[in-house]
Amino acid sequence: MNIGLLEDNLAIADYLSIALEMAGHNVHTYTYGSSLLEKLGSSMVGGLHASLPYDLIIVDLLLPGDISGLEAIQQIQRAIPHERLPIIIISAGSHDELEQARAILPDVPLLRKPFRTQALLQLISDLESR
Length: 130
What we know:
Blueprint: E1 2-6, H1 10-22, E2 26-30, H2 33-46, E3 56-60, H3 69-79, E4 87-91, H4 95-104, E5 110-112, H5 117-128
Parallel strand pairs: 1-2, 1-3, 3-4, 4-5
Helix pairs in contact: 2-3
């Protein structure tokens, strides 16, 4: 599976990349929401028939820059149906921030940091089997 990982903490991004690659996935890491959106740009404009660079996106909610993880997800989902491009949220946000994300994006799985790598791998496996 080709996975786009949007995570600003380089240690976490490196760890997750290694764990996901050991599980057989190809991982491309981004630290800013704008860089991921730029990569997805032509796919987001092309509509339902555009080819996608990723099979799954994993997004941290708390990011530096002018685009939060939540805003990046909302932009992606406005252009690409979640059935075509599943998203998993990972975040160390407060309880209130996570509840807000769940209210806005009820169909997007969310893992609160710190989480067990096996929990992420199981979510990915569940998404693959759909």
